[in-house]
UniProtKB/TrEMBL annotation:
Its cofactor is AMP; FAD. SMART domains: ETF (SM00893). This is Probable electron transfer flavoprotein subunit beta. It comes from Lachancea fermentati. The electron transfer flavoprotein serves as a specific electron acceptor for several dehydrogenases, including five acyl-CoA dehydrogenases, glutaryl-CoA and sarcosine dehydrogenase. It transfers the electrons to the main mitochondrial respiratory chain via ETF-ubiquinone oxidoreductase (ETF dehydrogenase).
Length: 258
């Protein structure tokens, strides 16, 4: 393997994390009209980590390539990724199709091969569907090592090897493997930088490849799940105060909780 890093960073356009999602009138999903969208926070962390690796290992990283699979409006978050330090990007215009993680992973595999990437860094999950599947599925399809929920990433430049620290129940776990590799990012990995206005202007001049799902005609993107209904969780009733432990136990018995 050549001693060069080619980093692929998938990013997803999601409803902004500060917005409270609302169910649409049809009860089939979340209302998207008139709602602010932004880059998935976990993917923002992935972009930042890729840029930090490039800044630390200037002679090692050949390029950072961002990719988004979604509507044409996802160009905005790709421009943001370019403004933060990505070199090139690809938009796979999926129109309004709601692709499941396996379909996304299959398309990403094709992009990895086309870009000759040897390190994929992506958010551990997106905040819209919270599936937390795509990175693992991509690693399986590529037959690459994987390190999920990364809280720290160290690149061994001499041996082209990644060491990832991840938080687990009761402590930390350290995983090390030679590249190529898939890494998914957790919130504690870093704090993403802001995209400055000058850099956003410069990003408009960086190359953006535009593809459609028809360019991946050999990939089965048919959904395997059917959404029957989406509804708000039932409102919680107000709690009550009790005067003693005996009254608490009696209330719990009445509610058949004990």
């Amino acid at each position: 393997m050549s001693k060069q890093l080619r980093i692929l960073v998938p990013v997803k356009r999601v409803i902004d994390y500060a917005i409270k999602p609302r169910i649409n009138k049809a009860g089939t999903g979340v209302e998207k009209a008139g709602v602010k969208f932004s880059m998935n926070p976990f993917d923002d962390i992935a972009v930042e980590e890729a840029v930090r690796i490039k800044e630390k290992h200037k002679n090692l990283v050949e390029k950072i390539h961002a990719v988004s699979i979604g509507p044409a409006k996802a160009q905005d978050i790709l421009r943001t990724a370019l403004a933060k330090g990505a070199d090139t990007c690809t938009l796979v215009d999926a129109k309004e199709a709601e692709l499941e993680p396996l379909a996304v992973a299959k398309i990403l595999k094709k992009v990895v091969e086309k870009q000759n990437a040897n390190l994929v860094i992506l958010g551990k999950q997106s905040i819209d569907d919270d599936c937390n599947n795509t990175g693992q599925m991509l690693a399986g399809l590529l037959k690459w090592p994987q390190a999920t929920n990364a809280a720290k990433v160290v690149i061994d430049e001499a041996n082209l090897r990644a060491t990832v620290t991840r938080e687990i129940d009761g402590g930390e776990e350290t995983i090390s493997a030679p590249l190529p590799m898939v890494i998914t990012t957790d919130l504690r990995l870093n704090s993403p930088r802001y995209a400055t206005l000058p850099n956003l202007m410069k990003a408009k001049k960086k190359p953006m490849e535009k593809l459609t799902l028809s360019d991946f005609s050999d990939v089965d993107t048919a959904p395997r799940l059917e959404v029957v209904k989406v509804e708000e969780p039932p409102a919680r009733s107000a709690g009550i105060k009790v005067a003693s432990v005996d009254e608490l136990i009696a209330k719990l018995k009445d509610a058949k909780a004990i």
